[in-house]
Amino acid sequence: MGSNNIKKNQRLRRKKVKIFTRKYIYLGLFLSLLLFVFGCSADENENVEGAEAKDAVPIKIGVLASLTGGLEAYGKQSVQGFELGLEYATNGTMEVEGRKLEFIVEDTETKAEVAVQKATKLLEEDKVDFLVGSSSSGDTLAVLPLAEEYEKIMVVEPAAADSITGAEFNKYIFRTARNSSQDAVAGAAAIAKKGVKIATLAPDYSFGQDGVAAFKEAAIKLGADIVHEEYVDPAATDFTSNIQKIIGLKPDYLYVIWAGSNTPWGQISDMKVQEKGIKISTGVADIATFPIMKPLVGMEGFTVYYHELPDNQVNTWLVEEHKQRFNGEVPDLFTPGGMSAALAIVEALKKTEGNTDTDKLIETMEGMSFESPKGTMTFRPEDHQALQSLYAVRLENKEGFDYPVPVLIRELTPQETAPPIRNN
């Protein structure tokens, strides 16, 4: 009997141990499950909080512009257009995918060394996600290496030198501005044909040099003969000797490339170049130059923009809003360019859902089309140059104006004005 009782007690103890052990195992599993659930919830909360924190971080854009110096008017036009572009593209919210847009404007003073200093400040101190600018090709070329060094997209506007998307190109550069070759194709189409003799007058820096080279290439293809290239100091105010040299060569046309307030038109008129049988042709610049172009009524050339020429919804909004915002003034030559730069950035950010990763943006923007005041623009994948419309025009007197204005001959399509690819 005693032996049986011992065995029975042993079996009872083992049973109790098993039950006790199972209880602790189940409790341990239950606690582990709770920890797993709470851990996942915590991770999810952290992810949500992290995403919300990222969304709360504003997207910063640094704008470089000539707010002083020889290209002051162009810089102010670009900045005004850029701000209007952000408002139009975001329906006034100044947000993309829940992230605020902020832009910081820095004056390059139309000096390359200052442009580099200001761009460095924007990249290092302000931590901008994009650069935009600048008014001067010289300023812009000086800043291009910084975009590559800091791996940030730079949308070039309104600088036109071919080398920006040519010899000095890097993959971080996208240009909404037209380039000198696009100007040249339009300018050549207006006057060049077989047997026509043409002299050129341009400022002696990248804008003028690239412009003449591109015009010469386009004009020669159409059969014209470039008999002389005259380059002058960009800051010059006396063009007498330069114009006299051209008169002595007796070309059929004098094709002028110019930017800035110190234009040669007054002296061209005073020296009666047209009366001597030399026709003038040029790109029609900003409205401020119209009064001094009175002697050129009837001249045929081209323009980048005049507010009455494009017929599209974006331009209509721009003209109406600009008048309301700036005491009845209409947008000028480079206002739509500034707007186009803003529209391109916002369109890219919409496509990336607010992601500012540079590689993602480059992938998105290559080949991207977007609507602008000049119609549809497309970033050509090979060199990131925006293909766009230009306008063949004739200067005519118009009722209500005491100076000639450009009247549309025809719109030159993006396909017609597509420049050569020069970045190898």
UniProtKB/TrEMBL annotation:
Residues 58-397 form the Leucine-binding protein domain. It holds the Pfam family Peripla_BP_6. It comes from the Bacteria. Transmembrane segments: none annotated. InterPro entries: BCAA_transport (IPR051010), Leu-bd (IPR028081), Peripla_BP_I (IPR028082). Gene3D superfamilies: 3.40.50.2300. Keywords: Signal. Belongs to the leucine-binding protein family. This is Substrate-binding domain-containing protein. The lineage of its organism: Bacteria, Bacillati, Bacillota, Bacilli, Bacillales.
